[in-house]
Amino acid sequence: MLECWxxxxxxxxxxxxxxxxxxxxxxxxxxxxxxxxxxxLQIPLQTFYQWRAKGIGPHAYRIGRHLRVSRTDFQAWLLLxxxx
Length: 84
Hints:
Number of helices: 3
Mean pLDDT: 81
Helix content: 25-40%
Largest sheet: 3 strands, antiparallel
Radius of gyration: 18 Å
Number of strands: 5
């Protein structure tokens, strides 16, 4: 897996790519966008944002100006809402 690191030197940006050993990164977290979650659940995007406003949606991370939900958080949230 490649990881990007940016360095600043005298007003210029340099990008350094390093390769990680696959054994150290045995679990890679898959992040889903709100639209991917809505597509999977077959619900309108507005419903997802209403759930967030009410505090009943899956836990989301703000990355910059984007919301992302980890696949494991989404699956755990979904299991809690299963109908018996």
